[in-house]
Design brief:
Aminopeptidase, binds coenzyme A
Length: 123
């Protein structure tokens, strides 16, 4: 985790949400590709503690992460989500992300191939 955190300094930041001094979620920008042509594109991760979901924390974290991305010369965020992740897709659509398409059998989950949805937002 320490190494992961060290890799998320500067352009690819991690933001943490706190309520009453309690950490209730985090979101990070991650490198999308090492190729120079894609330097302005970042990948997104977000996770809210179960007790704090549905209270607007994810939306706020995403807003702040997008502001940090713009400040760091990132003009687009892409993300990859399981097609059944209604919560994630709800948050992303509400925040202006569009569905790009579906990778078929992109991953393996519990031993079974699984499709992955791609979404994006131009900042
Ligand atoms: C997905 C997740 C980050 C959403 O964060 P959150 O703090 O619960 O979301 P918010 O309360 O900020 O909701 C913002 C909007 O997202 C949508 N939304 C949130 N939860 C939803 C759900 N379960 N189903 C459908 N839409 C949902 C709503 O449109 C909501 O806006 P509204 O309340 O005005 O209607 C959170 O549920 C989570 O951490 N899930 C587990 C990890 C995960 O799936 N991460 C994404 C991986 S791709």
């Amino acid at each position: 985790m320490k190494q992961w955190f060290l890799n998320h300094e500067q352009r690819y930041c991690v933001l943490v949400a706190k309520i009453s001094n309690q950490i209730c979620g985090w979101a990070s920008l991650n490198p999308y590709s090492h190729r120079r042509a894609y330097q302005g594109v970042a990948d997104l991760s977000i996770y809210i503690h179960r007790e704090y979901r549905g209270k607007g924390v994810g939306k706020q974290l995403l807003l702040h992460l997008e502001a940090a991305a713009r400040q760091n010369g990132i003009y687009k965020i892409v993300l990859f989500t399981f097609p059944f992740n209604q919560g994630g897709q709800g948050l992303y659509r509400k925040s202006g992300y569009r569905e790009v398409g579906i990778f078929e059998k992109q991953g393996i989950l519990d031993g079974n191939p699984i499709d992955v949805m791609i979404m994006e937002k131009l900042l």
